[in-house]
Amino acid sequence: MVDPVRVAIVGGGIRGSIFARVVGEHPRAELAGICEPAPPVAERLASEFDTPIVGSVDELLDKHAPDAVIIATPDFAHVEVGLAVLGRGLHAMFEKPLATTVEEAGVLRDAASASPGKVMVGFENRWNPKFQAVKRLMGQAGAPLIAQRILLQDTEFVPRQMLSWAGRSTPGWFLFPHTLDMAMWLSGARPVEAYARGVRKVLAPDGIDTWDRISATILMSDDSIVTLDSGWVLPESRPAVFQFHYEVEAKGALYDITIDDSGITHYSADRASYVGTPDTDSRGRLVGAHIDMIRDFIDLCDGQDVETPDIEQGYEVTMAIAAIHESLRTNANVRIRY
C-alpha cells in the first residue's frame, strides 16, 4: 500500500481550519499537524482535530515530518514560513497572494527554483466551474479579447471583524489576486502597465489604516484592457459578505458572469436572512472551488499530472499588484517590468 501524503497546515484560522478538514477527508492524505501560535485558536483546533497542534513552524516541520505544507498565514506573513518549507525540499501551497512585496515574492521564487518540491499558489477561482466554462467557450470561439471588467467587493465585516490584520493589507492585496489571476488565466496575457485610484473615507478615520476602495486599469500584453474594482466597505446588511461580477468582452461576444448569486435567501413573515451556499454535499463532504483546489494540491504532491497555478504566476500577480499600489502612491501610470 502506498503511503499517504502527510500534509501540515501553518495558520489555523478560517481557511487553515477548512483546509485541515479537506486533508482529513482525502483518501490518500494524512493531516500531519497544524502550527498556530495563538493560544485560543490552538485550543479550538485541538478540540476539532486529532493531530498535533504546535506553536512553532520549526517544531512542526522537524518533529512531525510532513511531505507537504499549506501556508495559510496572513497575506504579509508568507515569506519566513515559505523559506522554511522550501528550504527543506517540501511541497508547498501558498494562499494568495504569494507575497505582498516584489522583493519577498522574488526571494520565494528563487527558493522554489532550488527546491525539489512542487509549489502551488492558491488562486481558487481557477476551480470555479463558471470560469472554467467561460475559458472553454473562449477557446472554442478564438475571438480577439477586448476587455475584462471585474467587480469584487466585501462588506465591512471583513476588515472590521473577520481580519485582525486589515490595517496591514488593502482591498488590492486581499481581493485583486483573485481577479487579476483570473484575467491572466482567461486571456493568456500578463499585465504590462497599471493606473489606479483609491478612496480612504470609512476605515482610516476609525484607526484601520487602509484603503476603502481601489479601482485599477491595466494594459495587458495582448493589448486588451482589464478593469479591477475592489473595496471592503459595503454595508453589513447586504445578504452576502461579498459581491462578485465579471464581464469578458471579445470580438462579437460578451461573457457575463455573476458569482455571488449562488446562495439562498430565506424570507420569513418579518425578515429576510441569507442562508449561504451549502459547504457540504448530502453526504457531509466538503464542496466548493477552494476545496477542489486543496484536493488537486494533494494529488499534485502524490505525483499526479495536475495543472495548477505555479510560483511564477504568483510572482507575476504580486508584481502587478505592487505596480497598482505604486500608481496609487505616485498618481501616475506604472510600467510593470518582470
Automatic annotation (TrEMBL):
SUPFAM superfamilies reported for this sequence: Glyceraldehyde-3-phosphate dehydrogenase-like, C-terminal domain (SSF55347), NAD(P)-binding Rossmann-fold domains (SSF51735)
InterPro entries: Gfo/Idh/MocA-like_OxRdtase_N, Gfo/Idh/MocA_Oxidoreductases, NAD(P)-bd_dom_sf
Name of the protein described by the UniProt record: Dehydrogenase
Cited Pfam families: GFO_IDH_MocA
Species of provenance: Brooklawnia cerclae
Domain Gfo/Idh/MocA-like oxidoreductase N-terminal: 5-123
Coiled coil: none
